[in-house]
């Protein structure tokens, strides 16, 4: 079978292991996030119930197991199956069998998670959802340890990383002037959706360093991706730069699994000899198929080449988008969410406005009443609290709270959320860090907006506050339940 040697990449076994196990780990985290949050957000009694959404769609345009029937029990069954399959792949068990076994496992994950995403509405409207779906589908064709890694799939995974990085770079060039005049990071660490524990320290760096950060970002996203396709060791060096810059983003913010996806994809460009040279404990030729004959079955070659052609054909639309002046950000061009276009933060918000939700048990909702603030797990609230590191776990409610002042607070889901707080709904309260009423019902709830900024070092020493906040105005006046519902009727 020497005639298929052009198709085989025996020197990329470490890359395959990282890609398969890393992608499966991200699926585990994404599905766990859904198991913990989906029923309260989108379940039968959620903020945007899936049964009502599906009934309101004459045709659900994207595939989902829930298009015919949804129940919270079925959702939990789908999540349990996804968690079991992803754990098996992280452990490397399907990879020990024939190549169709990991293929089946990854395609099952892809279909299960796509079923969740496609009914997730605004709570699943993030670019990293389609990124994870595309990763899962493509990694499925890397085969098992009985065959060498296929070169065409590795190249397609590098192409996915290229679109992710170069697309993000181009959206910045097409976007706000702050990326072109190198001032974007004067603001971004402070105004990003969910700061992490190191975000304030990053924000307080001198402005010349922030300008260097932006220059480094442009280099990493607009220049380095082309070298991912270069011969070794250049491709591995380019991958190393991607990993380094993504780890900086992991440390300075909370972007769910976006940065970890890029880190995992970067290994598609790392060869075993380079990996061994950097980390000597990584063995060379750990795949027995690298020296065994025969290696690639004809049926597997045919399957992989067919998928390669499919993904290359689908690449026409994202290429055209990348070259367009009206570049779309995080867009899919087909119902299966394959070969998408990506990008993030084309413009940077210069001021941080937070929506603070409060409740009171007073009969009259005057300002002098005892208003108590609800605490969220990830989004800023308590000015003394150190932000936590949540990524790659995804707090969907907290992320959407960031979008409210940028769009409108008059979102259907937000009013539903306030109603659940008035009901002291246990599943909704579990999405929060702190319920100021310990499970009791408030009489009224309201929403106010505040301008937040990071405290300077001097302010922190003086007050112990990590944030300085200033009240802007009341965005939603006090709301209460109808009298019949207040008494549980």
UniProtKB/TrEMBL annotation:
Membrane topology annotation: Multi-pass membrane protein
Keyword terms of this UniProt record: Endoplasmic reticulum, Membrane, Transmembrane, Transmembrane helix
Keyword Ligase belongs to the record: no
Subcellular compartments: Endoplasmic reticulum membrane
Domain Lipase maturation factor 1/2 N-terminal: 124-274
Stretches assigned to the Lipase maturation factor 1/2 C-terminal domain: 338-475
InterPro entries cross-referenced by the UniProt entry: LMF, LMF1/2_C, LMF1/2_N
Annotated transmembrane regions: 73-93, 100-117, 222-250, 257-279, 299-319
A family per Pfam: LMF1_C
Chief place of localization: endoplasmic reticulum
Similarity annotation: Belongs to the lipase maturation factor family.
PANTHER family in the cross-refs: LIPASE MATURATION FACTOR, LIPASE MATURATION FACTOR 1
Name of the protein: Lipase maturation factor family protein
Organism, scientific name: Arthrobacter methylotrophus
